[in-house]
Amino acid sequence: MKILLTSSLILFLSACASPAKDTYTLPENLSTITPANPLACRFEKQLVNEQKPQSTDWYFWRDALRTETRDELSNQGEIWEHNKTGQLFYTRIFYNDRVAIDFVPGDLAAMGNTVSWQQLGSLIDPATLGKELLLQNKKTVNQVAVEYYSGTLNGIPTEVDWLPVIQLPARLTKKLPEKTITVTLSECAPASKLAVQPITKAELDSFRHIDYTDLGDMESDPIAQRIEQLMGEHHHQDH
Questions:
Q1: What is the domain range of residue 159?
Q2: pLDDT tens figures, 98-149
Q3: Which stretch of DSSP H or E encloses residue 66?
Q4: Would you say 147 and 165 are in contact if contact means Cβ atoms under 8 Å apart?
Q5: Which terminus of the chain has a smaller tally of CB atoms within 10 A, N or C?
Q6: Calculated CA dihedral for residues 226, 54, 28, 192, nearest 10 degrees
Q7: Position 2 in a domain
Q8: What is the CATH number of the domain that holds 119?
Q9: What is the Cα gyration radius of the chain?
Q10: pTM confidence score
């Protein structure tokens, strides 16, 4: 049996309504960072639904050919890599189980993946700004320009406080019928200066790697079955 899976980052990116109020403070060093350099950011991720609201740190790392995320609440992460021919490779990381699920371009194509590299690198496709998401206001905060957009993406009300200087949101909110998800930028720095670092190659190599195409046929493997269940729970509950 082959499971159906959509990346949690794709779900977050594709789903993200008046501009948000200034209820947060921008990191002070943003004006010294350029989007061309490797970047490390810590966001506060808030999930509000009928149950108890949840808040966690959510990390994002970006360089020219790679992005990585890590969610401290679920202790899961994702790596997207982009080669010079435009192909995307995706790895889903489960830190508690020390397992990595690997997806090749053919797997992503079969899943109907349409996310662009620009969207993966900016958390929202910059091409939607001024089109699906309309500019509502502009301000300068801590000597940094902030552009406020709102609208609807894929049928979901979305608001973005956009930072052109680093090509990332200061805050991104999506309002689904059953919950509201918001990520707010708390810290941003050159990749080497953030306290939490991306996974090293040595650590990732030490994890058990499973090809996505094999996962659905591993009914007798308890770890694989646990990972498949976690994927389903993450799909339905957290995104």
A1: 8-16+20-238
A2: 999 999 999 999 888 778 899 999 999 999 999 999 999 999 988 899 999 9
A3: strand 66-71
A4: no
A5: N
A6: -10
A7: no
A8: 2.50.20.10
A9: 18
A10: 0.85
